[in-house]
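Entry 14. Ran structure prediction on the chain below.
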Amino acid sequence: MKYKNLVKIVLLMSLFLLTGCEKNQKETDLEEIEFDFATTSETASKQETILPTSELDTTITSDSEALLDAFLASKIPAVINNEHDVTIMFDQLPHDEEDWSCYSVGERIDLDNDGEDEQIVDGPYGGMFLDARDGKVYVFASGEGTAGVLTYTQYDNAVWIVHRDTTHAGRQVYWLTKYDGGETIVDEFTLAAEYWDSPDSKYDENSDFTYRDEKITMKEYEALRKEIIGW
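Output, structure tokens:
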């Protein structure tokens, strides 16, 4: 499973954009379906509420902090997929502090190792990470369901974007990607434990463990998981 293109948005988002928040909806009732740009780009385009250029502060085009602020103020959109011209305004996302499936403003830190802070938008399956560059805001990483929960970690003197699948029986999988700027991937690898035949859904010394596509032992897996992920 690869995450070189981390701007995929689950179908859940498009459903929210059309219908709003589903109150008290349980996470287990939601399916993790990748955003279908081919069938939803027209709908997304119709929903855009981009302000005319004359109403925008032109100073935001050269400052990443101001660009992120402008997106959070719903003055400019974030690009979900540049090739298909799919964007989203912040006020189009569902917002409800009492609903786990809605979105809220998170912290702002350097997530792609370029010396400038990116914006975390908290939300379902880890929300999304936003990068400001070239006068625009981009969604460069997003939660992709229970099999791709988004987070990040500090490892080997860098920040790594992490997608994890740790809630399903028979596996624990972490996909890690290191960026040098929001478009440039400089390294990526997988850390995984697989124990499909385990009667109690727990791994043991006989389970399959891999790190960077190489077989490792259970002891090595647990040591690496603690060093890289933190537990």
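The longest helix spans residues 37-47. Will compare against last week's run tomorrow.
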